[in-house]
Amino acid sequence: MPLDIIVGTQWGDEGKGRVVDLLSAQADFVARYNGGDNAGHTVSVADNTFKLHLIPSGLIHSRPIGIIGNGMVVNPAVLLEEIDSLRSAGISVTPERLKVSHAAHLISPAHRALDAAQEAARGEGKIGTTLRGIGPAYTSKMSRHGIRAESMLEAGSFREIVNLQVEEINKQLIRLYDAEPVNPARVIEEFSHYAGQIRPYIAEVSRLLDEALSRGQRVLAEGAQGTLLDLDHGTYPFVTSSSPTAAGALMGLGLGVGCADRVIGVTKAFQTRVGAGPLPTEVAGELATQLRGTGKNPWDEFGTTTGRPRRVGWLDAVLLRYAVRINGITELCLTKLDILTGIDPLRICVAYRKDRESYQDLSMGPGYLEVFEPVYQELPGWKQEIRQVRQWEELPAEARAYVLRIEELSRAPVRLVSVGPEREQVVEIN
């Protein structure tokens, strides 16, 4: 069936937004399936830069219908801000073009307050949460105390549901964290206002997407974060609260096994991550500045949501190979190859070392990366500017060798290479 799933193979921030933007031109539906406004996609189109946190970035195109899946947690205030922002930029965002799953859960100010209290209580063991209330919202969902979008359809009962949840979270804030409680009346008033605006967008998206696939329409599943942040398969406990893997796409949209046509893994030409947790190939100093950028450009390595500078390092092929296996990736898109221009030599982590033994793969997953040291292979770099290149044969021989080595190490074909931030700055490999 014509379902394409886009996943991040690293710790997020791989450039999925620009890949989604590229593929959305031929899609009928573009659907976000996990996370909340703790993640974002940046898409540069001519002089416009769009930074989206909830709305699928494919909605920038005029053709597809955007879907916010049941696997997401939604802050209503952020959703409405993004709708207004896109409309101001001339993008059509109507209930006909954007659908919110009735089963998506809502993030309230109480969740955000609890997130901040929990992170503060961790002290030096902080996870590095974005403080957006994502984790507490998923906790409410799993403990069956959450608020689903469908609750907004009934104004009277919605107020009662919101009040019960705020009171429950206030008990935790006071008893466990000695923190200030949230005013229930204020939250009820605020959320009742949001409900009136969001109500027309609520739909049963699982059935909608299933019918579309049955008609042969193309659905593009747009993931947030990356494989190494997956709650089950990532660098636990430094992970997100959802499943950004390919399997998470089926759960987060209500689609059955066997729907997927392609699983497209997006990987950066080097490694980055935001927040705490292991990063075996991390670098510092001048090289880190060159990889990260200064922050003056939209594509520099600073968080779309948080603005925090990302930690950077060499590409880790051990983790990339793991992501290919976990997701069943059928092809790779390599982003930001142009950032490596002028760096010589280049390095790729091809194995890990522990107690004088070398490991090509992770025996117990990526939960304990701190015990390993990276084993590097050096490759020659290139000096030629590549942002104007559009054909594979026109790339410097060293750049082609670097891409082919990634393909060999990952055991997945590289089909697309990004050589710049703009839509047209890509090289397709047949």
Protein model, in words:
With 430 residues, this protein is of the alpha/beta class. The protein has two domains: 3-90 and 205-428, Adenylosuccinate Synthetase, subunit A, domain 3 (Adenylosuccinate Synthetase, Chain A, domain 3, Alpha-Beta Complex); 105-201, Adenylosuccinate Synthetase, subunit A, domain 2 (Orthogonal Bundle). 31% of the residues lie in helices and 20% in strands. The protein is built from eleven helices and 20 strands. The strands form five sheets. It has a ten-stranded mixed β-sheet with strand order 9-7-5-2-10-1-11-15-19-20, sandwiched between helices. Strands 14, 16, 17 and 18 form a four-stranded mixed β-sheet that branches. A hairpin with a 2-residue loop joins strand 16 (346-354) and strand 17 (357-359). It is globular. The protein starts with a strand and ends with a strand. The mean pLDDT is 93.
Q: How large a portion of the residues is in β-strands, by DSSP E?
A: 15-25%
Strand order of the largest sheet: 9-7-5-2-10-1-11-15-19-20
Please bin the fraction of helical residues.
25-40%
| CATH class type of the largest domain | Alpha Beta
What CATH calls the topology of the largest domain is: Adenylosuccinate Synthetase, Chain A, domain 3
List keywords for this structure.
Adenylosuccinate Synthetase, Chain A, domain 3, 31% helix, 20% strand, 10-stranded mixed beta sheet, globular, 4-stranded mixed beta sheet, 11 helices, Adenylosuccinate Synthetase, subunit A, domain 2, 430 residues, alpha/beta, 2 domains
